[in-house]
Write a structure and sequence with these properties.
Helix 8 crosses helix 11. This protein has helices at 11-24, 30-37, 48-58, 84-95, 107-116, 128-135, 151-161, 180-190, 199-209, 217-221, 234-246; strands spanning 28-29, 62-64, 69-72, 166-167, 175-176, 196-198, 249-252, 261-263, 272-274, 276-279. The protein is an alpha+beta fold and 285 residues long. The longest helix is centred in the N-terminal third of the chain and has 14 residues, at 11-24. It has a three-stranded antiparallel beta sheet. Strands 6-10-7 form a three-stranded antiparallel beta sheet. It has a two-stranded antiparallel sheet with strand order 4-5.
C-alpha cells in the first residue's frame, strides 16, 4: 500500500467518512455514503469515498460484505463523531503496525516518517525544496526519502494528522519533526498521572507505541538504530522538553539513579540526564 500516492485521500477526508459511518452506527451501503458525501456520484468506483473505504480496508479499519455494505472495525467502530484524538490514535496505530500487521502495510509513509524523525526539530525545518536538494539521498537504505514532490504534501498532511510532524512556527510552508502530540497521547494512555516513572521505561514505551522513532522496531528495520539505547534522539528529546516547558511533564534528574536516559539539549554542551518522567496533566491532546 502506498499511502502517500494519489488517489489516497488526505486524513481530513478519511475522518469525514469515518464520522459519517460513526453517526450512522450500523453497516451502511456504499451508495448511501456516496449519496450524502458525493451527491450524484453514487455509481462511481472512484472518488474520495471509494478510495477512503479502500484505504480503511487495507489498514484493517473497515470491512465490506458482498452487497457493498461497509462497517468500521479495528477500534474505529467505537469512535465518537467528535473524538478526533481517538481517530488519530487508531489511525496511527494501524499505519505503524503497533497492534500487529495490517492487510496492506503502508511502507512509504513508514520510511518517510522514520527518516524525518532522525532530524533535529531544534534546528531544522523542511519543505520539498530542502528535501529534494539537500536530503533526498540520505535515507539509510540508500533509496530516496520521497520519490517525487507530489508525495511531500501527503507526508505533511499525514505526519501532522498522526501527531508526528507539525508546521514550523517560524517559517511558512515548512514543517518540523515535532512528535509532541503523539508523545503526549502515548503518555496519557500509558502513565498514571502524578506518578513518577523511571525514564528508561518511558523511553521503551514510546519506542513501542511509536516505532518510527529512532531506536523503535520500524526505524531500526530501516537502518535507524541507536548505538546506545539510553539516547533519546533529537525529535523525542524535543517532545519531552516541550512537555516540560508547557507544564504537563516533569523531567526528573536524580543524581543517585542507576538508570537514566540522555536528552538532546542544544543549549548544553553535553547531554541532559533524565532519570524519571512524571505526567502532570492527563487532558487529551
Amino acid at each position: 500500500m502506498q499511502l502517500l500516492n494519489t488517489p489516497t485521500p488526505y486524513p481530513a477526508i478519511i475522518w469525514t467518512v469515518v464520522r459519517f459511518l460513526a453517526a450512522e452506527g450500523k453497516p451502511t451501503p456504499k451508495k448511501t455514503i456516496t449519496m450524502y458525501l458525493e451527491p450524484g456520484e453514487e455509481a462511481r468506483n472512484s472518488g474520495p469515498v471509494h478510495y477512503t473505504l479502500s484505504t480503511l480496508r487495507d489498514l484493517g479499519l473497515a470491512i465490506a460484505v458482498e452487497d457493498d455494505t461497509w462497517s468500521l472495525t479495528g477500534g474505529l467502530e467505537k469512535v465518537a463523531v467528535d473524538d478526533d484524538a481517538e481517530f488519530q490514535r487508531i489511525m496511527r496505530g494501524a499505519i505503524l503496525g503497533v497492534n500487529g500487521d495490517v492487510p496492506d502495510s503502508p511502507e512509504d509513509i513508514r520510511r518517510a516518517l522514520a527518516w524525518i524523525l532522525t532530524r533535529d526539530p531544534f534546528r531544522e525545518s523542511f519543505n520539498w525544496a530542502t528535501i529534494d536538494q539537500l536530503h533526498n539521498g540520505s535515507a539509510a537504505d540508500g533509496q530516496l526519502v520521497l520519490a517525487n514532490g507530489t508525495r511531500w504534501p501527503s507526508l505533511t498532511a499525514w505526519g501532522t494528522a498522526l501527531g508526528l510532524m507539525a508546521p514550523a512556527p517560524h517559517a511558512a510552508d515548512r514543517y518540523v519533526p515535532d512528535c509532541t502530540r503523539a508523545v503526549r497521547q502515548v503518555l496519557i494512555d500509558g502513565l498514571e498521572r502524578g506518578h513518577s516513572t523511571d525514564s528508561m521505561s518511558v523511553l521503551q514505551l514510546l519506542r513501542r507505541q511509536l516505532p518510527v522513532l529512532t531506536g523503535g522496531v520500524l526505524a531500526t528495520s530501516l537502518g535507524y538504530a541507536v548505538d546506545v539505547p539510553k539516547v533519546a534522539g533529537a525529535a523525542l528529546s524535543f517532545a519531552l522538553m516541550r512537555g516540560e516547558h508547557e507544564g504537563w511533564l516533569l523531567l526528573g534528574q536524580d543524581s543517585d539513579a542507576s538508570i537514566v536516559i540522555n536528552l538532546h539539549d542544544p543549549e548544553r554542551t553535553s547531554a541532559r540526564i533524565c532519570s524519571s518522567i512524571t505526567l502532570l496533566e492527563s487532558d487529551d491532546a
